[in-house]
Design goal:
heterodimer, A: about 80 residues, mainly beta, about 0% helix
Amino acid sequence: MALHFELVTPAKLVRSEDVHMVVVPGTEGDFGVLEGHAPVMSTIRDGALMVYKSDGAAPEEIQVQGGFAEVGENGLTVLAEHVEG
Amino acid sequence: MASLKELKGRINSVKSTQKITKAKQMVAAAKLRRAQAAAEAARPYSERMSSVMASLASKVAGQEGAPKLLAGTGSDQKHLLVVINTDKGLCGGLNANIVKAALTKARALVAEGKTVEFYLVGKKGRAPIKRAFPKEVGTQFDTSEVRDPGYAEAENIVGEIVEMFEAGKFDIAHLFYATFKSALVQDPTEQQIIPAPVTGEAADTGGAAVDYEPDEDEILAELLPRFLKTQIFGALLEVAASEQGASMTAMDNATRNAGELIDNLTILYNRSRQAAITTELIEIIAGAEAL
């Protein structure tokens, strides 16, 4: 039970790993993505991605700026212009 | 025949030129590896971006009220040619080839009665384009201050281009740069960037309905400038890699030519030295015999 999560910036592929859940700061509100999420495409506001490696684990925060998130069959892909941390 | 001293001077001058070309070749070889790595690292982003764009655009295309960056202004009278060159020379015919491609296109457009304007990135394209089209050169974006043109530069360039587009200064934009094939081959490439050409495979959503948040139009409006940035950024990286590749090849040739020249000059030098010695000997012997 894992969600494939990819974080990509123009300069490089920052993350490509299997995680439990990611909370994405969408423009119209945060949403959490677990495995098997329905396909969605959303722009994101500047804020922090919360990455939960496993159920109940403390989240890891990644600051992102400008971009969008896409959930498809292959998991979650976040395209961001700038990433910190 | 040149005197011995002159020959020696020429040999030394060619030798110091060879040292410079050899150093530049080695620098280019080292930088090439880095530029190639950067170009490769940028690929996942642009691939994802294209596939997302393709799937979005296929939904919105043809509808009324599609963003202008995608649908165009409905006219094709004014053309903007964005030409990306390098800032430094010593890279063989790379810049000449890019400029030639751009000028050919510009002449064809002018012959059709359209107006053209140039947007130049990089120093080396300015002079030849200005010579051919003195009045049409508009903005010149300066990248000579930064060491490696990166995403920040791409953002600035796109900002200016989109501003010009919204002000109605042009209808169609073309991008000229060099695609890096190998250290030996860099192809001048032409690409239309506005209106955005939507090609490539649409992202496979497995037939499931995709939720858009906010709706398609808004996402598209935000995505188009970003898509443009990705393309310009990609072009900047390609040109950077091409520059190093072309430079490496050109300098390798120059080093070899200099070596040949030195060999020839050395033979000439030794010959004239021997001739001088022989003449001197003959003079002494002739003098001795006369006594």
